[in-house]
Structures are given as C-alpha cells and as structure tokens.
Design goal:
CATH topology of the largest domain: ABC transporter transmembrane region fold
Number of strands: 12
CATH class of the largest domain: Mainly Alpha
Strand order of the largest sheet: 6-9-10-3-11-12
Radius of gyration: 36 Å
Shape: elongated
CATH superfamily of the largest domain: ABC transporter type 1, transmembrane domain
Strand content: 5-15%
Structural class: alpha/beta
Number of domains: 2
Number of helices: 23
Length: 593
C-alpha cells in the first residue's frame, strides 16, 4: 500500500491542509467543556445571566468556526482522495495494458476487474478517511487527557488507565481483521468470476440446461464470501461494545471520584461536567477511530492487492529496432546484415520453435521449422488443440517461443520494438470482438488516421460492404457492446476489415471465417489474394477448402508439424492431411480409392 502513496504527490497541499483544518476543528472542540464548566461554576452558580449569554455566544462561535474548518478539511481530503483514486486507476489500467497474454492467462480477468473497481474504491475511501480522521481522533483523545490534567490531576489518572485499554482493543481487532479482509476480497474474486462466466456464457448454459448447476456454483462461491464477511464482521463488531464498556466504566468511576472530591471541596461541579464531557469526547472519537481502522484495514488489504498487480513485471522485453530499418531502410543501412539486404529474405521464418505455456506440463508446439516468403499465403490446418492458434500467436509476439527463433525479414522478432512490430501485422483472432461505437470507430482501431476510402476498400475486400450498405447511416451505424446487434458472420467480416484498414504487411486470419458460407469465404480469399499490397497471409482454418490453394500448407498434429507443402503434395504424402481432407470431401475419397 505504501508505494501507492506516490499518487498523492500532486496533492501535497491538500494532504497537508485537510488534517490541519481537522486539527483546528478539534482544538475548538476541546475548549467546549471548559466553556461549559465556566457557565456552570460562574454563570449558573452566580445567577449571572449576561455571563451565561456571552458564554453561549462563545459556544456558537466555536461551533461555527469548527464547522467551517470541518467543511474545508472535507473539501481538501475529498479532492486528494479522488485524485489518488484517479491516478491509481490510470496507472493500474496502463500497467495491465502492458501485460502479455501469459500474464493475463495467469492472473485472470475477474481479479483484475475487481482490483480496478472495488479495490481502488476501497483504497480511495481509506485515503479520504485517513486525511480527515487519522490525526483528528488521536489528537482529541490525547488532547482530552491533557485538558483533563489541567482540570484535576487525580481525576485525570482515570484517563491514563482507560486510553491504553481502549488502544489495545482497537489495535488488537485491527491486527486480527486485516488478513481476514484480504481473504474476503479473494472470495469476492471468485463470485465475480462465476458471475462473469454466467453472463458471458448465458446462451451455452441454457442450451445445455445447466442453469441449476451454475446457480449452485454461484451460491457456493457466494456462501463462501458471505461466511468470510460474517466471520470478520463479528470480530469487527466487538470493537464498539468493548469500547463502550470501557469508556462507560471510566465515566462511572469518574463520576464517583468527582462526587467525592466535590463533596470535600477539591473540585467544582462544572469541572466534573467538563471531565465527563472529555470522557464522552474520547468515547465518540474512539468509535470513529475504530470505524476508521476497519475502513483503513480494508483499504490496506485492497491497496496491497493493487500493489501486487503493479509489481508484476511483464516478462516480454521490447527491442529497439524499427521494422522499417530492419527491412532495409537507408536510415539504418550501415547496421543491416547481408540477410536483411537480400530482397529474397523470407517474410516470416520459424527455426526449431517450441512453445510451452506458463504452468503447462508439456509443450504446445514442438520443433516447428518453416519459411514464408513475401506475399505468400500460408495455410495452417490441424485438429482441435493441435497448436494452430499458438503458432500464429508467436508472430506478433503475443507469446514468446521458449525454444528456437521466430524471424521477420531475417531478424529475430525479439529485437523489434513491440508496438512497431504489431503496427505492421494485421491479426484477426478466433473470437470476433467489436466495441461499442460506430462501424467507423471500430475500423479505426486498425488505423486511427484511416480515410473513408481506406475503410470502404477494407469493407469491400472483407465482403462486409454488402451488409454495411444496408445499415442505416452505413459507417455511422452504432454497434452495441460486443457486437450484440450483428450476426456472427457480420462480426467476423468487420474484424477482418479492421485488420485490413491497417494495410498490414503480414495478415493473420485465425479461423476468422468459420461463420461465413463457402461462397463468401472464397470471395474473401480471392479479394485478399488480389490486394495490391500483397501481404504475407496466414490462414488458420478447420476447412480444407479454405487453405487448399495456399502456397504452403502446414499440417499440425498435437503441436508437431505432421507435414508441409502444397495441397497436391500433402494429399499424396501426409496421412494427417488426407484424413482431414477426405473427411470433408468424401466423394473425392471414393473416386481416389
């Protein structure tokens, strides 16, 4: 939590003025019992009405000044806390954006959402309360004790006993509950995960009639959270009654001692009232402090969770070479190798590449070697789980190869600046994801400076133009969150158009035409093949028809390369390819049999 305080650096004035004004308010509050004692001992005892009125005006003045100080302190503390929360959210979101797929897979999106929302809100609330009450409450507690000594030393000794006992109760509860609140937040992650999966997979759950199972799963996670909250709540709830018992016990002893000393003339009635008021002030402030500590305990636990995310350093280091220079730009010509100067250098080259996901027991890809020339189309096919997506995810460095090298234009991709590398690669992932906004807004994710003619060209090539033309407003047609108001095929075509707007030099289509009919799929492949930029295209597909005309076809089987070559070559020599192809074209299997 301590490292998060750096986000208060722009609010130094507020963090000083908020507690300062609270201390001023507390100072005025400490004078109130003395004024009351004077009213009783001088005004009421002497039946001096003008004196009583003057003292009442003093009380009103103290109240008004204290209120002004309190409002001012509240303003500064709220300003600092809101700024702190804003800074933490920005930093956390920016840090999450730097995570690789590996970190995202390890952490999970549910816990990151909790930390971005609930945890930051708790930390912000903790900062607000600390600035307002953390100095005020102890100041009044010890100030009341000091003022009690100025009234009567013997009676004030009761305060010396009561305050340490109260401190043990308050800080003891805090030490016990702090780790428990951390556990509560972890259980909240589980509830959020169950909720998120149910909302995202509502159609699947209903299709397989799993509502009862999912309801039970949610109830189990929710019950664990409820039990944890109840347990820590019971412990926290002990604070108020225990503090009330101690303080009220102290008041009883104080009244008894005060009565004895008033009886012998050592103390006045007004001074006894002042001492009781000081004890009551201590009670009120310790209750506030107890609630503050509960909130701060939660805030510290949440702050530590945020801190743990911020401490995670992405294991993928960006290089400093720009694509233009590595491809043979004259700006860096002196540093180019002979391979890079050679125009025949492959666009993409895999050299004995293997990939093992973090925490996995076995390799997902093993010893993959191939070369893709500039402008070639590479088809990748294989059974479910054979590693097709894993292979193409290595090209834009979504993951790093654990063994071997992936080269682009003859240079290891680890030497490239990651942002620059990805700006030259168009990727269409398996799941079509669109964002709330217009069609134009979504297309400009590929190129924020894209002109309308660029977007129109991308729509034409991706075969999305026909349905976009039918939408009201065309490019200004608003897409709902996740593309809910579009069909699966429409979403896929728009994600392809989004990648094409970038005019990439390498285009990766990761099973991105699965929702398209065969005619549209064929038209799409033909349009991409005829693009004037001639990108190097990687097509991942379960359909043999989608990749049969590729320049090279890579056949994967359980992470290993079962074959590589053209359609005709693989149909003769690769059993794995034959099995896939003939399962989809049985008539040809019979005729060739």
């Amino acid at each position: 939590m301590r490292s998060l305080l750096i986000y208060l650096k722009d609010y130094k004035k507020e963090t000083v003025l908020a507690p300062l004004f609270k201390m001023l308010e507390a100072s005025f509050e400490l004078f109130v019992p003395l004024v009351m004692a004077a009213v009783i001992d001088v005004g009421i005892a002497g039946n001096d009405r003008p004196y009583i009125i003057r003292m009442c005006l003093v009380l009103i003045a103290l109240g008004v000044i204290g209120l002004a100080c309190s409002i001012t302190a509240q303003y500064f503390s709220a300003r600092a806390a809101a700024g702190f929360g804003t800074g933490v959210r920005h930093a956390l979101f920016a840090h999450i954006q730097s995570f690789t797929f590996t970190e995202m897979d390890t952490l999970g999106s549910s816990t990151l959402v909790t930390r971005m929302t609930s945890d930051v809100n708790q930390a912000q609330s903790g900062v607000n309360l600390v600035l307002r009450l953390f100095l005020r409450s102890p100041f009044i507690v010890f100030g009341a004790m000091v003022m009690a000594f100025t009234v009567d030393v013997q009676a004030a000794l009761i305060f010396v006993v009561v305050i340490p006992v109260l401190s043990v109760i308050v800080f003891g509860v805090m030490l016990i509950t702090m780790p428990l609140y951390r556990k509560v937040q972890t259980n909240l992650d589980s509830v959020l995960l169950a909720t998120r999966e149910n909302l995202a997979g509502a159609r699947v759950i209903r299709a397989f009639n799993k509502e009862e199972d999912e309801r039970k799963r949610f109830e189990d996670a929710n019950q664990m959270l409820t039990d944890a909250q109840k347990f820590v709540g019971r412990i926290s709830a002990l604070m108020n009654p225990l503090t009330y018992i101690v303080v009220n016990g102290g008041i009883i002893v104080l009244i008894y001692v005060g009565a004895v000393r008033v009886n012998v003339g050592s103390l006045t009635q007004g001074e006894v009232v002042a001492l009781v008021n000081y004890m009551s002030q201590i009670l009120v402030e310790l209750v506030k402090l107890a609630n503050l500590i509960i909130t701060v305990t939660k805030a510290v636990a949440c702050g530590n969770r945020i801190e743990n995310v911020l401490k995670i350093k992405p294991d993928m280091k960006s290089g400093d070479i720009l694509w233009e220079a590595s491809a043979g730009s004259s700006a860096d010509e002196a540093h180019l190798t002979e391979t890079e100067k050679n125009a025949a250098a492959p666009a993409v080259e895999f050299s004995h590449v293997s990939l093992t996901y973090k925490g996995a027991g076995a390799e997902s890809l093993s010893d993959i070697t191939f070369r893709a020339g500039k402008g070639q189309t590479i088809g990748i096919i294989g059974g479910t789980g054979s590693g097709k997506s894993s292979l193409v995810n290595l090209i834009p460095r979504f993951y790093d190869a654990t063994e071997g090298e992936v080269r682009i234009n003859g240079r290891n991709i680890k030497e490239y600046d990651i942002k620059n590398l990805r700006s030259h690669i168009g990727v269409v992932l398996q799941k079509a994801v669109l964002f709330k906004g217009t069609i134009a807004d979504n297309l400009k994710w590929g190129n924020e400076n894209a002109a309308q003619e660029d977007m129109e060209e991308a729509l034409r090539i991706s075969q999305a133009k026909e349905f976009v033309d039918q939408k009201q407003g065309r490019l200004e047609f608003r897409i709902e969150q996740g593309g809910r108001n579009l069909s699966g095929g429409q979403k896929q075509r728009l994600t392809i158009a989004r990648a094409l707007v970038r005019r990439p030099e390498i285009l990766i289509l990761d099973d991105s035409a699965s929702a398209l009919d065969f005619a549209t799929d064929a038209a799409l492949r033909s349009a991409i093949h005829n693009m004037k930029e001639k990108p190097t295209v990687f097509i991942v597909s379960q359909r043999a028809a989608s990749i049969r005309f590729a320049d090279q076809i890579i056949v994967l089987d359980e992470g290993e390369m079962a074959g590589i070559g053209t359609h005709a070559e693989l149909l003769e020599s690769c059993p794995a390819y034959q099995e896939i192809y003939y399962s989809q074209f049985p008539k040809e299997a019979v005729s060739n049999g």
